[in-house]
Design goal:
Layout (H helix, E strand, L loop, with lengths): L1 E5 L4 H19 L3 E5 L11 H8 L5 E3 L8 H12 L3 H4 L16 E5 L5 E8 L10 H11 L4 E7 L3 H11 L5 E5 L9 E2 L5 E3 L6 E2 L8 H10 L12 E10 L6 E9 L11
Parallel strand pairs: 1-2, 2-3, 5-6, 6-7, 7-9
Antiparallel strand pairs: 1-11, 4-5, 8-9, 10-11, 11-12
């Protein structure tokens, strides 16, 4: 079984590249399950219901988010309405499970692939250099007790590499994969841990790389050089899709391989090559 996880989709350039490249990648590599972090898909900050539905319509099975999930008020209302009137699309959009009790939305999703394989996706957020949410380690323990699927992917949206690495070791052998998001910078430490969990510290951003983590360079430089606040605008140039492909046993959930993917608009993916 093969899982495609797409790193932080940033703004329109990221969405367009996902629409252009993902169907081809799914067909070429025989992908069974597609997951993407989409917390910055709406002009680089937040996610709207219409964009969520657009991305799900491209064949993405589950969308994860992170600290920018509440940037667009419409998504809060989307979750709140869906808690009273079941909405399949809303249920496939996650917010970190360790947010304060009573937060709208859901932190994990269980479903079946098109080949009828049970799977689960868990969304959690780190605490180091980020908001003081509930302990993600203990939140993971509680969620995993309730999940029956063997194939389980965890999106750990966190800042500190140490916290991400520790989290990977903590869940080794208990989930199929722990993939890091949030920094928008892909790391080169992908590996399968000893007990069968695929791991990478950060998948990277799917968006404009002629930028400072997605933002127009001049605006980011102005803030660094002047110390003055500035309104950030999403950049447009050099869009790239960053993702990982994880191979695992459908019956045990144990991972056997993880491969980084970085693609521009016209590049052809060659397995095993970046």
């Amino acid at each position: 079984m093969r899982i495609l996880f797409i790193g932080d989709i940033f703004g329109r350039p990221g969405r367009h590249l996902v629409a252009e490249r993902v169907p081809e990648l799914v067909k070429q590599r025989g992908i069974d399950l597609v997951i993407a972090n989409a917390e910055n898909a709406a002009a680089g900050f937040g996610l709207t219901p219409s964009i969520a539905i657009e991305l799900l319509g491209l064949g993405i099975d589950v969308l994860t988010t992170g600290n920018h999930v509440w940037d667009k008020r419409e998504l809060v209302e989307f979750f709140q309405q869906s808690e009273h009137n079941f909405n399949e699309n809303a249920r496939r959009v996650l917010r970190p499970a360790n947010f304060p009790a009573g937060s709208p939305g859901w932190g994990h999703f269980e479903g079946k692939t098109r080949r009828d394989v049970p799977f689960a996706v868990v969304n959690l957020q780190g605490r180091t250099f980020m908001a003081a949410n509930e302990d993600p380690f203990r939140a993971a323990d509680a969620i995993l007790k309730s999940i029956s699927a063997k194939v389980v992917l965890v999106d750990f949206h966190a800042e500190a590499t140490s916290e991400k690495v520790a989290f990977g070791w903590y869940l080794d052998g208990r989930v199929t994969a722990v993939v890091g998001t949030h920094t928008h910078i892909p790391t080169a430490d992908e590996r399968v841990l000893p007990k069968g969990t695929a791991y990478i510290t950060d998948v990277g951003m799917s968006g404009p790389y002629d930028s400072v983590i997605g933002v127009e360079k001049e605006l980011a430089l102005h803030r660094f050089l002047s110390g003055m606040p500035a309104r950030f605008e999403p950049a447009k140039g050099d869009p790239r899709l960053c993702a990982v492909i994880i191979e695992c046993d459908r019956d045990t959930g144990r991972a056997s391989a993880i491969e980084r993917v970085m693609l521009g608009p016209h590049e052809h993916h060659q397995p095993g090559k970046q």
